[in-house]
Design goal:
With 558 residues, this protein is of the alpha/beta class. It is built from 16 helices and 26 strands. The strands form six sheets. An eight-stranded mixed beta sheet has the order 7-6-5-3-4-8-9-18, with helices on both faces. Strands 16, 17, 19, 20 and 21 form a five-stranded antiparallel beta sheet that branches. The protein starts with 24 loop residues before the first helix and ends with a helix.
Length: 558
């Protein structure tokens, strides 16, 4: 490993080495409840809960889990969007010494069954609308108990009752399941003992199985210890030394069930004794109202969220000047999006990088000092990073040499659950091989050129979709876009651009292609352009390029 040139570019106040608390997340929550008991921990459709109340409810549910016979090391699944039950249950499962796994609400019946069986989770805390899926897998997965919560369980009156009337009118109301397997989360929680939980926790014990890879094959459980989770949350905290303990408000529009929202949202907020605004599903109007009302200061998100805010027609009706800093993850942040958002809010928007296997954050641009647009920034405090050759993975590349990004740090996973061969493929001598292609410049800033699997060979030249997208976003008519290497009947692969135009705008494929010709090498210019009303994304807002590629393959096969 060469010296660490990135240390010279850390913001003032960011330490060069990592010294994080030797406490688990539930212990940190208890500490914050003691020091900041009256601080709001979250706002949810007008409901406010403080740290002392949250800590008590976590004790209640943790004791309830223990009374059910759940022992340290047993697995418990959460099947929830951003809501009070998700926060309570997350910390309660960990406090009881159990291992948490979070189900993605977009999963099919098959995918849900796979994760429950693979993890061994037989207890679930679920939203009511996911019960129909659990009914189909309950016997196969040998479920023992399901606690059910509703979106409106923590709504204030009269909103709580108005929601019921609205849901029934829209026929979206889910009847309460009468089977003995299902129990009310709220009712049983209120019966739990508020006494402190007497389960010793160990930083090096497994805390979480966070599943990843479901979009590219069989989903694998990433093994994260309590130490992994605490270290990464603390690394986030250290990166913004100007933030004030107990005085920040986090916008939680990205889901907690995703590792990014979990760490760079909820766990970081609790570490700061901050408040969270819980948004179950991103809607730009709801987010803007909340930013204005609660004076949101920290706004972790993804590019799609910032694009939606940038292009909201009545943005001037809302005060968004409280925003101090935003870290964009789960995919590239294009320069035009970054510039417009910063001009709009006066806050800082920087690109970061991470992956589930690293809890997830590993790199970020400095928020206050030198930053480089189009790059993922510097390794986090306590994180080492380098670029290795793609062919063998054994040769470290020189400055600006293109290769595979590899990472080492306290946030790196222990491996994949029940997948030793897969683990050995990506963890080598403590280094995590990410599968992302990039380079490091002379200052220690890293850039991701693209995913190893997304790189396209055109006429013997390497084309990275991100390069094409950067140019497309410069076109004033373009609202959103993605480029992909798609199969062609004549060529092995061709570059195709998928574009969503801004409202009221019109364009032709030829116009877009001509625009690109003047701004990029000929071999990078899209051969085809398709206009769409929307682009496929996951719950976090990450672009699902592979779905577009699969569509093209199916067209050719026909």
């Amino acid at each position: 490993m060469k010296d660490r040139p990135w240390l010279a570019f850390y913001d003032q106040g960011v330490p060069k080495t990592l010294d994080y608390p030797q406490q688990t997340l539930p212990e940190i929550l208890a500490d914050r409840a003691k020091k900041f008991p009256d601080n709001p921990v979250f706002y949810y459709f007008g409901t406010r809960m403080n740290y002392a109340e949250l800590n008590q409810k976590v004790n209640q549910f943790a004791n309830l889990l223990i009374e059910e016979g759940i022992k340290p090391g047993d697995r418990v699944a959460l099947y929830l969007p951003n809501c009070p039950a998700a926060v309570i249950a997350y910390y309660a499962v960990l406090r009881a010494g159990a291992i948490l796994t979070q189900l993605n609400p977009l999963y099919s019946v098959r995918e849900t069954a796979h994760q429950l069986k693979d993890s061994g989770a037989q207890y679930v805390i679920s939203l009511d609308r996911f019960v129909p899926i659990l009914r189909q897998v309950a016997d196969e997965c040998q479920l023992k108990k399901v606690w059910v919560t509703r979106v409106n369980d923590y709504f204030p009156v009269p909103l709580k009752w108005l929601y019921v009337l609205k849901a029934k009118k829209e026929k979206s109301w889910v009847a309460w399941p009468k089977e003995p397997l299902y129990h009310s989360f709220v009712e049983e929680l209120n019966e739990g003992s508020p006494e402190p939980v007497q389960v010793p926790l160990n930083l090096d014990k497994t805390a979480l199985l966070q599943y990843t890879g479901g979009t590219t094959g069989v989903a694998k459980g990433v093994i994260m210890t309590h130490r992994n989770l605490v270290a990464n949350a603390y690394q986030c905290k250290l990166w913004l030394p100007k933030l004030e303990m107990g005085n920040e408000v986090f916008m939680m529009a990205i889901p907690i069930f995703h590792s990014y929202g979990m760490t760079a949202g909820m766990n970081w907020a609790v570490l700061m004794a901050a408040s969270m605004v819980l948004i179950p599903k991103f809607e730009v109007i709801q987010v803007l109202k909340a930013v204005d009302k609660y004076k949101v200061s920290i706004f972790p998100g993804v590019q799609a969220i910032y694009v939606a805010i940038n292009n909201y027609p009545d943005i001037q009706k809302y005060n968004v000047q409280s925003i101090k800093a935003c870290i964009s993850g789960a995919g590239p942040l294009h320069q035009e999006v970054q510039k417009k958002f910063e001009a709009l809010t006066g806050g800082k928007l920087v690109e970061g990088y991470g992956l589930t296997e690293a809890s997830p954050v590993t790199h970020c641009n400095p928020v206050y000092g030198t930053r480089k647009m189009g790059m993922i920034g510097l390794p986090f405090v306590g994180t080492d990073s380098k670029i290795m050759d793609v062919e063998t993975g054994t040769k470290e590349m020189p400055v600006k040499g293109i290769g595979e990004l590899v990472i080492k740090g306290p946030q790196v996973m222990q491996g994949y659950w029940n997948h030793k061969e897969e683990t050995d493929n990506v963890l080598k001598d403590g280094w995590l091989y990410t599968g992302d292609i990039g380079y490091m410049d002379e200052d220690g800033f890293f850039a991701i050129v693209d995913r190893k699997k997304d790189m396209v060979k055109v006429g013997g030249e390497n084309v990275y979709p991100r390069d094409v997208e950067e140019v497309l976003f410069q076109n004033e008519k373009v609202l959103d876009c993605v480029a992909a290497g798609v199969p062609d009947k004549v060529l092995v692969d061709k570059i195709k651009a998928y574009i969503v135009l801004k409202p009221g705008q019109t364009a032709t494929p030829e116009e877009i292609i001509e625009f690109c010709k003047s701004r990029m090498a000929k071999y990078k210019v899209p051969k085809e352009v398709e206009f769409r009303t929307s682009l496929p994304k996951n719950m976090v807002g990450k672009m699902l390029r592979r779905l577009l590629v699969e569509e093209e393959k199916q067209k050719i096969e026909k």
